[in-house]
Amino acid sequence: MNFKKLIFLFTLALATISCSSDDDGPGPYVFSNANLSGNYKTTLLTSDIEETYTVNGTEVKSVTKVVGDTFQMTTVFGADGSYSASGQYRIETKVTTAGNTNTTSEIILVDDEGAYSISPDKKRLTITIDGDAETFDVSLFNETKLNLKKEVNETIDDIPTVGTFKVNYERI
After folding, report:
1. Where is the signal peptide (predicted)?
2. Could you write out the DSSP letters of every residue in 89-111?
3. Quick one: fold of 33-171?
4. Which pLDDT belongs to residue 151?
């Protein structure tokens, strides 16, 4: 009887030890230049912007919603920090001010080259083109996807502005 219990306990201990390393799985995908480098296609582009104007002492809110579609673009992040984006996409812009809505649509042509830098500890990506830098929070990064988000809450040209911008990429 003791022998059977001993074999049972040994088998249980062995199973526990061998299973624990299988359950760990791979660690998180590290946000680094090496892991980011590659070609990506854009899968989502949106922005929501709210501006508050003062007209004759009265506040007037203007809400702008931008949605991109029909993406025919390639974005390349090089392991050396180089950045390029080329192609085209369509955006629909809907501006609502004082209850009136105006909708426009246009094709955007892209041919950009620049550089990027990352802040792995804060999960931020800064893209610089022609000296202009934009910093985005990385909301998702894995082997196949990169999702960027930027929130703005500042005064631009004396107009209080709040906005959220999102761009999602998928590795190709």
Report:
1. 1-21
2. EEEEEEEEETTEEEEEEEEEEEE
3. Lipocalin (2.40.128)
4. 96
Q: What are the tokens at 117?
A: 């830098």
Residue pair 124/143 in contact (Cβ under 8 Å)? The answer is no
Please state the domain extents for the chain.
Answer: 33-171
pTM reported for the whole predicted model: 0.80
pLDDT tens, 88-98?
A: 999 999 999 98
Q: What is the pLDDT of residues 5-58, one digit of tens each?
A: 444 444 444 444 444 445 555 667 899 999 999 999 999 999 999 999 988 889
* Residue 18 burial (CB count, 10 A): 9
- Cβ contacts of 82 within 8 Å, gap of 6 or more: 76, 113, 114, 115, 116
Q: How many helices (H) and strands (E) does the chain have?
A: 2, 8
